[in-house]
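[Automated response] Your request has been received and processed.

Submitted sequence:
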Amino acid sequence: MKSESIQELLQLHFGKATSIISQRMGNIFYSYDRVSSKDQMVNGNSLVWQFERINEFATKNSFVIKNKYGGTYESAKNDERKEFQRMLKDIEKDKSVAGILVYSYDRFSRSGANGIFLLENLQKLGVKIVAITQEVDSSTPTGNFQQNLYMLLSKLDNDMRKDKSVSGTKSILRKGYWPYSTPIGYTNQNKHSTADKHVYTINDDGLLIKKAFQWKASGKMTNQQIVDKLTAKGFKITLRHIAWVLANPFYCGYIITSLLPGEVNIGKHPPIIDEKTFLMANNIGNENPIHGVLKVKNQEELPLKIFMKDIQTESPFTGYFNKKKKIHYYKSRGVASKVNVNANKLHQHFSNVLSHFEFDIKFQTKLADILYKKLSAQLESKKVDETTNKKRISELKKQIELLEERFVLNEISGEQFGKFSKKYQSEIDILNQEISQQGNMSSNLKKSVEKGLEIAQNIRQIWVSGDFYDKQKLQFMLFPEGMLYDKENDAVRTTKVNCFFQQVAVETRVSDEMQKGNLLQDCLFGDNVGSTAFEYFF
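Generated structure:
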């Protein structure tokens, strides 16, 4: 048998099928565009802009857009979007479609690894993704790598935005401001501003909610009876919603959120109901009753409430008064760890901490000079922010000018112009305010240092003589994240100290104090301490 015949037989019976993916050819494409929010879809022009650019690209390259997908608001953080999934199903069935046109890869997906997985599966179908602003040849290893890199960068950008947003929201919440939608019973008189400028007032529904708390606290009415009574008064609320309202500490002046687990922060909003009624409505005063012990009514005796937490569970301390012993106590709220500590004992611990910030008056001139130089250096480093702010202001002014031009040309409505120009102007005002504050900080620095040292010199007496709210204000100014009580070692600890007072303590402590090995000293002034702003004095 000829070798050629053998070769043909071997090829016929043992020849390997090609593993090369057949790339779909042709000029027929789908298009996909999206925005991330409903507001962008309703009031913005991004969707129109995206499709116009995609259409221009298709015309230039002689592509035919067979079907258009998207045209709505869909988050690309996950890939379970309705329009997106509809497009993927259609492209799998329609073999005539060679690819998908998108404005950029982050419009396609911002889910990182999962986005790459989608690309690979589309490649197996012979379908390509063409981002008109990020053109790459995905048929080559280099182009494929670039495409995957764009996906990962989109995920990184998404994660960084989320982290920045969450950090900012946590900071706002800890200061007592509510950055979310206005709770029922309140009216926000300044709802279009940032959370720190919100002004909450109690409306008519709020007055009825106060009645609901009082009815619940009396123990004579069920939630359903309360709902029925509110409905009769014209206030419609569901059984589930009233249960949420009655269990929400927001209505007695506190802020609790899953973003800050274990934390209870004093809110800036007016409480609808007093603390005692709130506790009674939630039957908190009856849990684990102890003979002769009452929930404390007077906050003045327990200024470290909420501020101090159990180190094991990070449960904020509440308090009570033992009538038999005639002593106030702090106690943790955590179920896992029960901590009770004599209030006077804990106050002494805190007073000892304050003593680290006090100094001999003979060192005041030297201290003032050192602190002024160091804070001046910090202000100098912040000038970069001022330059960035001015650049951003210039960009925003150009945006407003562009809006005016588009309004004149009837490209946008008067409502859209008013909304976005107001938004841009508001951001400009905030940036100008920051620049102004920076200037005030520089000009008033010496006075601020003097005022800060005046406080530090008598800080224990200031705390002792202040009322509940003055004490809390001073506590959180010094230790913005509160303090932790270590029952096992009978010590208090903190992780963040106001940078001004931290520097005062560092400059004034003497060598023998450093040799004591005091754990509190290590905690207050160790490398793990995070500083906070000293603008409090300006």
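Summary generated for your ticket: The two ends are 101 Å apart (CA to CA). The chain has 21 helices and 17 strands.
If you did not submit this request, please reply to this message.
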